[in-house]
Amino acid sequence: MKFAEKLKAIKLRRRGYSYKKIRKTVKVSKSSLSRWLNEIDLTPKQREKLLIGREFSRYAGAKAKRRKKTEIIKMIVNRSREEFIHLVKNPLFLSGLMLYWAEGDKNQAERVKFTNSDETTIILMMSWFREICKVPEEKFRIALHIHNLHSKSDVKYYWSKLTGIPTQQFHKLWIKKSSLRQRRNILYNGTCAIVVNDKNLFRRITGWKLGLLDYFNITPRSSTDRTRDF
Description:
Layout: H1 2-14, H2 19-25, H3 30-37, H4 44-87, H5 91-103, E1 112-116, H6 119-132, E2 140-147, H7 155-163, E3 174-176, E4 191-196, H8 199-215
Parallel strand pairs: 2-3
Antiparallel strand pairs: 1-4, 2-4
Helix pairs in contact: 4-8, 5-6
């Protein structure tokens, strides 16, 4: 039985078949197939044909993966777009959404990030992320930026107390050199960025933005506005 399978595999290989295609006909392990066909050389034309086939398979696979990702994004965005009408009467939802639209990240990487230096704004946005977006506590990250003139040893503790996020979830403090010679505001504590690495949340926020535009019957004019694709 094995000998017959071996002869069949050799015959198919000499005709230029790939290992994958041979195994669909000859039900043996890949290691057995390798031993049987190890010394069989393909012609340059056969090798070229197999190479083109592999490249096409990779291309088709990548295209299918992208198509699936696009479908998932559209589903999340459209669901959130429809959800807007049920949330619009919630003052926290609406105020947080408008603040994020104005100050939040809109990058291609679909990262959720809100940056501000105003303490009350940060407090409000933390409530928005917790109560409206339902972000788990362990997913929050805080990034601080401050000029060297305002740098303080307790600045992390200040923002930790304000946000309720432990300092272990803070990124390394980023200190920017200032051209000023003295502080203009001794109470300044830098800018605080709330970071949540959650692409699906970014897509939900995108859907809420579109829901807001629908609510006021506004059509985006900018050709660079990514939301128009949904």
